[in-house]
Amino acid sequence: MAPSEQHKAKKRRLDDGAERADAPKSSSRFRPTEPREWTVSVAIPTSIITDCVTREQRTTIVGRIARALAVFSVDEVVIFDDSPMDSRAPNVDLDAFTGDTDPAHFMTHILSYLETPPFMRKNLFPLHPNLRSQGLLPSLDMPHHPYKDEWLPYREGLTIAGRPKSGKGTIVDVGLRDTVTISEEIPPKTRVTLQVFDDGRDPEPVHPAAPRTEAGYYWGYTVRKCTSLSKVFTESAFEDGYDLSVGTSERGVPVARAFPDVVASGTTADFRHLLVAFGGPRGLEYAAMNDPDLGELNVAGGRTRELFDHWVNVLPHQGSRSIRTEEAVLIALTALRPLWFSG
Question: Per the count of CB atoms within 10 A, which of 45, 143, 224, 330 is most buried?
């Protein structure tokens, strides 16, 4: 058989396989856990992308972080700038590519884009140089990114212009063939979380955290940006801040020593809001050194660990001289997951 004929035959086989009705399909369906008020937050420094040379490298690294957040059901990601204050570019043009001028803006832009359900991204994220390499980004495939044939008691929606036939309320695009109507009056291009019913009642807007707190569904992550490490704590979105904090460092202690009761008993840790903080190539000490507020408190270098309840090395005796932060996130969340999940 000639090479061209072999290519055509191979293409036919691939095409036929793609169209087979009995081809295996994913049967995964999201099942809720117990309703929960507690949350898991992750803090990531901007220095993880400052050494990157290309837009594609920066985009890929942030995509890997986002994928880890989704896989481990992280509720909040905090991006903090750990660069020296005098090295930061003033008057950054946020309409231009910011991966090399304002990495915090770039990272939060990409992370917010990925967290948003795909069907509403076009309306909420105008064309921007930061998104030029979006084809390299992974699918997060979270519960609030449902398939069209998948029913969940909650759904994310985007309000659209126009009046319902009744003349009252708001039309909402929820990613289905047909839009839905809610009785509330909400401006267009507003993202809303809806509770949907299977008994014919109209959907109702609820708090964005309701799928988690009322039904136990993981519903994506929120994104927060800080100008320094200390502001990760002082600008917390939670009223009483984080009641359990973990700093990761190769100079920390193993997880089993940091949390002996959890490891021994197999029960979860007692907390409402857990924070796991990661350093960049130079560690969390570098972030503390460049934080003016911590400088005034003389918290830097070896005292950085005093900022956290626990100072943990998630992979003792590593085989490589260094572990990249995007790798450390996966390793740490695997090692620390027993703190919040005992199954």
Answer: 45
Q: Is residue 2 part of a domain?
A: no
Q: What would the pLDDT profile of 104-122 be if each residue is shown by its tens digit?
A: 999 999 999 999 999 999 9
Q: Which helix (H) or strand (E) holds 8?
A: helix 3-19
Nearest of 57, 222, 41, 191 to residue 137 by alpha carbon: 57
- Which of 42, 53, 118 lies closest to 326 in space, CA to CA? 42
Cα–Cα distance, 288 to 283 (Å, whole number): 9
User: Running DSSP on this structure, what letter comes out for residue 147?
Assistant: -
Give CA–CA dist 311/246, Å, rounded. Answer: 6
Note whether 109 and 99 are within 8 A (CB).
no
Distance CA 180, CA 165 (A): 11
Q: Which residues form the domain of 268?
A: 39-142+220-339
Give me the residue label for tokens 């990601």: 77
Is pLDDT above 50 for 17? no
CA 136 to chain centre: 16
